[in-house]
Every structure is written in structure tokens, then in C-alpha cells.
Design brief:
The protein is about 65% helix and about 0% strand. The protein is built from 10 helices and no strands. The N terminus is likely disordered. It has about 250 residues and is mainly alpha-helical. Bound molecules: zinc ion (2 copies). One zinc ion binds next to helix 2 and helix 3.
Amino acid sequence: MVHLRGTKTASQSASESSVGARALYRVGIVGCLISGFVLLGRIIAALDFWRVLPAAAALIAGVALADLITGVVHWACDSWGSEKTRWLGSNLIYSFREHHHKPKAMLDHDWVDVNGGAAIAAFLGFLGFDYLIVGAGLASAGSGVVIASFFLGLVTTSAIANQLHYWAHTRDVPRVVAFLQRRELILSRTQHAGHHRAPHMRGYCISTGWLNRPLDAIGFWRALEVGVGRLTGTHPRKDQEAHRVAP
Ligand SMILES: [Zn+2]
Ligand SMILES: [Zn+2]
């Protein structure tokens, strides 16, 4: 699952993660890269003419779903619970909310710190997929190639979501990244800046950002809040309202 790393203060350094954690991150990054390319190779080897278009469409759908997942997690953490919520509050919810106040703090982290956690999760995902689907021979049969393409798009985008978000906060990006941002093929600085303007209630998707415009336009997040509010009997940003009215 995507975990936005914007939690650390500017005075903390990129070397904050322990040596052991960074070693694990490196293993995750290398393992994720290798297993991702292995799956890509398997897909290419199994593709025939009639499956090229469905596989490409499935890959794009996987990328879009990853963008939606980043949006839902981000929206949930911005809108519900508090930093005191059990299990998720002190780490996940805190990290998203702190990022509104200190958006540049994430730039204090190097790429190993930014990408390590997501890479480990993606590596495990690729291994699980390999065991369940490829091991059963499904990836080279019928719709298996399409499913594998969807999975590749989903997991790869999830793995690099933190990096895409990081790049949306800095002008210091490789040329190809700047090109992709200008075309809005990945999250652009301009688009993400919309979320960073208070009250931070739009533009929740933080990987490619493909879904931000359509979801904001149809009022998706507010409708979701109405639904969750009816189910739970509470309303969004409750603790933040309490902070605002406090003397
Ligand atoms: Zn936010
Ligand atoms: Zn941000």
C-alpha cells in the first residue's frame, strides 16, 4: 500500500532511517526492479497480435487504479480519524496531515528512504503474483496476459507513487520527468499545488494524478463523505473543526 512519506521535520536528515532499515529498503528496490522486469518479459513473450490492445488497456487500467488507491488512502487520512486513532493515527494519518504544514520536509529524504517501503511491498506483491498466477501457468494463457498487464501497471505505479509525489514538490527533476509532468502523464507540480491550498479538499490522487480532474469535477470525494457519514454517523474533518474553533 502506498505510504506517503512527508512525516519528517526539515531538521531531520535523510540518514534518519536506521542502517538496517536502509539495507532492507535497498533489497526491496532491487527485488522490485528485477521482479517487475521479469513479469514484463513474461508478458511480452506471451503476447500475440490479438492480445496487444487488451493488454495495453489493462496496463493503463492498472495505473489508473493505483492512482485511485493513492487518492482514497490520502482522502481517508485527511478526512477521518485523528492523529490519536488507534493503529493508523500516529503514523499514517499524522504523515498526511503534517505534509500539509511542511510540504517540503519530504525533500530531506533521499530516494532510498522515499521509495524503500513501497518497493518492499511491491516486491512481495510481485513474488505473490509469480507464485499464484505465473506458477500456475496462467500468465501465458488466454486472459492471463491481460491480468498480468493490469497487475504490472497497478503494482509498478504503486511502487513509484512516493517518488512521483516527491517530484511534484521540486523543480529539480530529470528532463524526462519534467516532460511527463508538463503533459500531465504523471502528477504535475501545478496540479498537486491545488491540493496544498487550504482546505486541502481536492486533488487527492498523488501518483499520476490522472483521476484528479474527473473525480473533483463530479464531486466524488464529497459524495463519498456523505456515504461514509451516513454509515458511521460521523462527519469528515471533525477533529480539524474542533481545532479551528478552539480558543
Ligand atoms: Zn492531503
Ligand atoms: Zn504533497
